[in-house]
Amino acid sequence: MSGQSTRRTVLKGAALAGAAGLGVAACSTESKLGHAGVPTPTAPVALGSPDEVPVGGAKLFREQRILVSCPAKGQYKAFSAQCTHAGCVLDKIEDNEGNCPCHGSRFDVTTGKALQGPATVPLPAVEIRVEDGELVAGPKAAPSA
Questions:
Q1: Do 109 and 97 form a contact (C-beta atoms < 8 A)?
Q2: Angle 33-38-43 (CA atoms, 0-180°, nearest 5)?
Q3: What is the pTM of this model?
Q4: Secondary structure class of 123 (helix, strand, coil)
Q5: Count of alpha carbons within 13 Å of 19, Cβ hemisphere only?
Q6: φ and ψ at 110, to 5 degrees?
Q7: Cis peptide upstream of residue 41 (ω within 30 degrees of 0)
Q8: Burial of 113: CB neighbours in 10 Å, binned 0-12, 13-18, 19+
Q9: CB-CB contact of 83 with 90 (8 Å)
Q10: Tell me: the pLDDT tens digits for 20-52?
Q11: Are 31 and 119 contacting, i.e. CB atoms less than 8 angstroms apart?
């Protein structure tokens, strides 16, 4: 009987180790998404008035998954607001840093650079412009035929 119980213990241990390995692989310290895995808009996305983004600051458009900063009046930079570590959407901006609520990664809102891990890959840049008095992110719409 002790031979069977030892075998079961070894098999259970192997199964648990395999499951733990999958968990580690899913949440490693390497940025697996990078630019290819973090979605950016493929069509124009209206964000509202440019006045909503403070000069010298930034605004998180969480629903649209876009982060917009305004380094100087009339100048805008935009980035994906989806963390390059595990794909979570940033939840807030503090001290010009975007925060990922899942694992604590932090990003510079003016450059997209990863400041604190586990993310190591910067947030991908997103095209941004003012059209008809409104901030619009993503590529320009194709002209109608």
A1: yes
A2: 160
A3: 0.72
A4: coil
A5: 6
A6: -95, -20
A7: no
A8: middle
A9: yes
A10: 444 443 444 444 444 445 678 888 999 999 999
A11: yes
Going by C-beta distance under 8 Å and a sequence separation of 6 or more, which residues neighbour residue 67? 58, 59, 60, 61, 78, 79, 80, 81, 90, 93, 98, 107, 109, 112, 123
Q: Each residue of 14-39: b (16+ CB within 10 Å) or e? A: eeeeeeeeeeeeeeeeebebeeeebe
* H-state helical runs in the chain: 2-26, 34-37
30 SS3 class: coil
* Residue in this structure with the two tokens 């409104």, named with its chain if needed: 134
The string of pLDDT tens digits covering residues 47-83 is: 999 999 999 999 999 999 999 999 999 999 999 999 9
Pairing of strands 125-126, 128-131: unpaired
> Can you read off the two tokens belonging to residue 31?
């940025």
